[in-house]
């Protein structure tokens, strides 16, 4: 017979860690968290590493803080990501106007997923589930394929995990040659997408994706958006 009052220690510790990090206005070290939670550092490190992989926690050289996934789960704003939205919004507004289509910006979240940070809607309206739980696998979309093509550590990690098939390897090679990724009704039969890398001071930092209900992507959109991003790189 199950005991309804039984508390699983791992679950309890996980929530205590998340609550501590959410309540803090600064990063917290492993030693500090271990002391506050009365949990040995080996156990706590394994728990934190799992939360980092899942995208709930950031590990900055051994100092931990909430990631965007935790902020979205709690329905709270995160200053760092608010700043990113303010930084990128003029760019996606321009690209949405330039292409006449819905445009979104995505950043990496955890080891194998990305999160939609912000979007401008035109004809195509993003589905509600994308807005509420916008975490998508890297291998399942044009947006994710851009992350794979331009994030060497991510690609290496996913190769080791046997996530990268020969078909995806071929896609990555073509993306690196062209500078963008196409998805013509492959993932969702109702839309087509073209995704581009965004660089901040010559470092790959995000992906911008144009979404249309058409069954093709006009080549002029690819050329014009790529040209705009290349010209505007220094402003990011």
TrEMBL record:
Keyword Transcription regulation set for record: yes
Record keywords: DNA-binding, Transcription, Transcription regulation
Gene3D superfamilies given in the database record: 3.30.450.40, Winged helix-like DNA-binding domain superfamily/Winged helix DNA-binding domain
GO MF term (any one): DNA binding
Domain (IclR-ED): residue spans on this chain: 69-236
Domain HTH iclR-type intervals: 8-68
Single biological process term from Gene Ontology: negative regulation of DNA-templated transcription
Superkingdom of source: Bacteria
Pfam family, one: IclR_C
Name of the protein in its database record: HTH iclR-type domain-containing protein
Organism whose genome encodes this protein: Acinetobacter nectaris CIP 110549
């Amino acid at each position: 017979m199950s005991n309804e009052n039984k508390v699983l220690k791992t679950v309890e510790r996980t929530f205590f860690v998340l609550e501590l990090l959410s309540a803090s206005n600064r990063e917290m070290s492993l030693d500090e968290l271990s002391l506050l939670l009365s949990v040995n550092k080996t156990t706590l490190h394994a728990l934190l590493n799992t939360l980092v992989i899942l995208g709930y926690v950031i590990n900055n050289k051994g100092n931990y803080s909430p990631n965007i996934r935790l902020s979205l789960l709690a329905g709270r704003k995160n200053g760092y990501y608010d700043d990113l939205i303010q930084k990128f919004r003029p760019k996606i507004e321009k690209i949405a106007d330039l292409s006449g289509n819905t445009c979104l910006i995505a950043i990496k979240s955890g080891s194998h997923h990305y999160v939609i940070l912000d979007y401008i809607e035109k004809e195509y309206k993003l589905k509600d589930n994308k807005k509420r739980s916008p975490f998508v696998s890297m291998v399942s979309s044009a947006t994710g394929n851009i992350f794979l093509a331009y994030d060497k550590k991510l690609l290496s990690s996913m190769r080791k995990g046997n996530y990268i098939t020969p078909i995806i390897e071929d896609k990555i090679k073509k993306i690196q040659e062209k500078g963008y990724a196409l998805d013509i009704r492959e993932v969702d039969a109702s839309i087509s997408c073209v995704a581009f890398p965004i660089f901040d001071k010559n470092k790959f930092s995000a992906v911008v994706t144009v979404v249309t209900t058409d069954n093709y992507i006009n080549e002029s959109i690819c050329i014009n958006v790529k040209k705009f991003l290349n010209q505007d790189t220094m402003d990011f």
